[in-house]
Amino acid sequence: MTILMIAEHDNKSLKEITLNAITAATQIGGDIDVLVVGENCGSAAEAAATISGIRRVRVADHACYNGQLAENVAALIQTLAGDYSHIMAPTTTSGKNILPRLAAALDTSYFSDIISVESADTFKRTIYAGNAIETVQTADSIKVMTVRGTAFELAAQDGNAPVEVVSEVTDLGLSSFVSEDLAVSERPELTSASIVISGGRGMQNGENFSILEKVADKLGAAVGASRAAVDAGFVPNDMQVGQTGKIVAPDLYIAVGISGAIQHLAGMKDSKVIVAINKDPDAPIFQVADYGLVADLFDAVPELEQAL
Amino acid sequence: MKILVMVKRVSDPNVMIRVSADNSSVDLNNVKMAINPFCEIAVEEAVRLKEAGIATEVVALSIGGTQSQEQIRTALAMGADRGILIESEGPLESLTVAKLTQKIIEEEQPGLVILGKQSTDTDNSQTGQMLASLMGWAQGTFASKLEISGEKINLTREVDSGLQTLSLSMPAVVTCDLRLNEPRFASLPNIMKAKRKPLDVKAAGDLGVDLTPRIKTLMVETPNERQGGTVLGSVAELVEKLKTEKGVI
Question: Do the Cβ atoms of B38 and B118 come closer than 8 Å?
Answer without folding.
Answer: yes
